[in-house]
Amino acid sequence: MLPKEEFFFLWNHATIKVLDIRYELFKPEEIGKLYKLPANMFLYATGGGAEIQIDLTNYTLEGFHLIHGGKGSTLQIVATDKGFEYYMVFYRASIPLTLNKMIARAMQSNNPFNYQYSLIPNSPITMFKKIHYMYIEWGNANNLSKFTIKSLFYQLLNEIFKQLEQDSIDIQKLNVSNQIKAYLEENYAQPLTLESIAKALRYSPSHLSIQFKQQIGCSPIEYLIQLRIEKASILLEQTNASLRDIAMGVGYNDVYYFSRLFKKRVGVSPTKFRQREQLNRLVKDSPTMSERYSIVDWSFQDYIENGYQYNERKYEPMNKRGLSAIATLFLCLTLLLSACSSGATTNTGSGEKQASTAQAVSESQTKIVSTMKGDVEIPVNPERVVVMYYTGDVLAFDVTPVGSSKIQEGAAFEEELKTVESLGEWFEPNVEAVIQLKPDVIIIPSKDELYEQMQKIAPTVMIDFSTSLDDRLTKIGEVLGKEKEAKELLANFYTKVENSQEKLKEAGILDKTVSIMEGGKGQMSVVTSYTYGRGSQAIYEYLGLKAPDIIQKKIDDKNNTDEAINVSLEVLTDYAGDFVFRSSYEGMVDLTDHPVWSNIPAIKEGRLIEMDFGFCYYNDIYSLTKQLDFIVDNLVATTK
Asked: What confidence score (pLDDT) does residue 303 get?
C-alpha cells in the first residue's frame, strides 16, 4: 500500500492529459471481453450492477461506484440482471524525472498512476455531473472544450483525493503477476513464449520474468505449464475427447510431448489418469453405493501405477451383504476396464515387454557425477545433451548438442550450430523447448534460478563460471563419458599455446604490449582483466602478452573487480599498447577521422587489429583455439 503523503506528493507534480472519455451501457447479464487498458483509467458506475475484474481483483458494483486501474491492466465486466451503465475516463500522467532526485526516487519505487483502488463517492450526483459534462464536451473537440475537460478533471481528482484522505481506502499497487496470470488464463491454449507474453503485456521479457517470480515464486512459463496441465486434467476427467484433441486444446500440438509432460507433472499418464478418475466417479455415483453407504466415510488409499491397481480400501461395512456388493462392483469394473484395454494391447504385449526390459537395462547404465549442487545421476554415455553457454566446450568433444543457448553472431562455432535448436538466452531459456528436446543431461553455468528450472527436466550439471579451463573441461569430459578425450584436448591446446608463443617470439612480438578496446563515442572501454572475453584470456593468460603498465597493474591486482574501465578519448593514448585489438561489431562508431584516435602510434602505424565481438566473446576451448590462430596470425602479419 502506497503511503498517502507520497501518493499526493507525486500527483501534485504530475502533468495530466485526458485521452478519451467513453460511455457504455451493458444489457442484462451481458459479458464483456477481456480488455487491456491502453492508459490509466477511472471507471464510474452510474446504474445497474456488475461483477468487475481488474487483473485478478474482483469488485461487485451496485449503483454509484468509482474504480481506478493502471495502464496495462486487464479488465472484464459481467453485468447483472439489471444491466450496467458506466463512464470511463482515460488519462496520461507524467512527471519529469529530472525535476529533482527526491521525485525521481519516489517514482522509481511507487508510480501512483498505476495503483488500483475503488470507492463509493460521498457526493455521487456531483461526481456524475462532472463526468457527464466532460463526456458531452469531449464531442466538441475545440480548444475551449479541451480546457473545460481538463479543469473538470482536476475538480474530479480533488473530490476523489479528499475522500481518499478522509477514508481508510486501500490503494493497491499494480500487480504485474496478476496481469500475467489473467493473460495466461485467457490465452493458455495459444502458442506462447516468454517473449510473446512480454510483448502482449508491453514489458521486457526479463522484467516480466523477474517480477512474476518475485511475486509468485516460479517463472511465467512454469506457471503456464502447470495451468495447462490443470486444464487438461479437467478435460480428461469430464470429457471423452481424444488425447490429441485435449493436447491441442491446452496448447500442445505434439500429443506425445503432452503425454510425457503430463506424466512428469502428475505422476501417471493421461490415459491412466482418466481411467482412475472415471473409476472414482463411477464408485461415487453408484446408486447402490450411495444408498447403502451414504453414512460411511470412504477413505481411498493412494493409487499404484501398475496396471491401474488400487490398494485395499479401508471402510467399515454395515453388513456382509454390503461387502459382497462392493466386491462384485469392483470385479465388474475391473473386468470392464480389462476388456476395454485388451484389444489395444493384445498384439503389442511382447513388444512392450521387450521395451520394458530394454528400459530397465538402459536405466541401470548410469553413473554418479559430483557437482557443485551435489551428486547427480546421469546416463553413462548421454546422447541428447542440452548445454547453456558452455557450447564450445561440448562441441570440442565432437558432440553436437540437441539444444543450446542462443549464441553471439560470429561465434567461432556458429556454423556447427546451424541445425541445433536455439533455446534463448542462457540465463532464461525457453523451458518448454528444453522439455520437448527430451535431454539425457543438461550442462549449465552457475545460476541458481536456472538450475531450479533445469533440474526438474533432466539431470543437470552446474559448473561455476570461475572454474578453470582444465577443471571445466575435465568435468564436461566426465559428464559426456569422454574422460580420455578431455586429457587429449587439453594436451593439444597447451601444445598450441607453446607453438603460438614461439611464433610471436620469432616475430619479435612476445615482449610487446597489447591493449584491448571497445566502443568509441566520446570514450573507449579498455579491458583490465583476462577473464572478460574480447580475446583477453587468449592474449593475456595463455599467450602471456603484457598490457601497458597502467592496465597491467589492474590485471595483476587480485582485488581488482573492474574487468574493463571507461577511458575518455583525450587520454586514450596512455592506455594504448604497441598493438591494439578492437572488439568490433555492426554499427560501432567510426573513429577513422578522429584526431586523437588516428594519432595513437599503434593506429597510425597500422598495428590496429579489428576482432569481431562474437568471435572473441567466449572463453571455451573451441573458441580459444580459434582465437589463438587469429591473434597470432594477425600480430605476425603487422610485422611483414
From this structure: 34
Q: DSSP for 458-479, please give it.
A: S-EEEE-TTS-HHHHHHHHHHH
370-384, 410-424, 517-531: range with lowest mean pLDDT: 517-531
Q: What is each CA distance from 125 to 65, 198, 250, 383, 599, in whole angstroms? A: 11, 41, 47, 73, 76
Distance CA 445, CA 461 (A): 8
What Cα–Cα distance (Å) separates residue 106 from each residue in 1, 2, 102? 14, 11, 6
3-state secondary structure of 157: helix
Are 420 and 443 in contact, with CB atoms under 8 Å apart? no
Task: Give the C-alpha separation, 578 to 603, whole Å.
Answer: 9
User: Would you call 630 helix, strand, or coil by DSSP?
Assistant: helix
383 within 8 A of 402, measured Cβ to Cβ: no
Pick from 88, 76, 104: nearest CA to 42: 88
pLDDT in tens, 38-65: 889 999 998 889 999 988 788 888 888 8
Q: What are phi and psi of 493, to 5 degrees?
A: -65, -45
β-strand pairing of 421-422 with 403-404: parallel
| 3-state secondary structure (DSSP) of residue 11 | helix
- How many degrees, rounded to 5, is the angle at CA 256 between CA 252 and CA 260? 95
Q: Which of 575, 559, 574 is nearest to 527 (CA)?
A: 575
Q: What share of the chain is helix, strand, coil (3-state, %, to 5)?
A: 45, 20, 35
Please report which helix (H) or strand (E) contains residue 187, including its range.
helix 176-187
Per the CB < 8 A criterion, the answer to whether 65 and 118 are in contact is yes
pTM for this prediction: 0.48
What is the rounded average pLDDT of the residues 112-140? 85
Distance, CA of 549 to CA of 563 (rounded, Å): 16
Whether the CA torsion 435, 438, 444, 448 is positive or negative: it is: positive
Interstrand relation of 523-527 and 564-568 (parallel, antiparallel or unpaired)? antiparallel
Q: Which residue type is seen at 3?
A: P
Q: Which grid coordinates belong to 35? A: 480488455
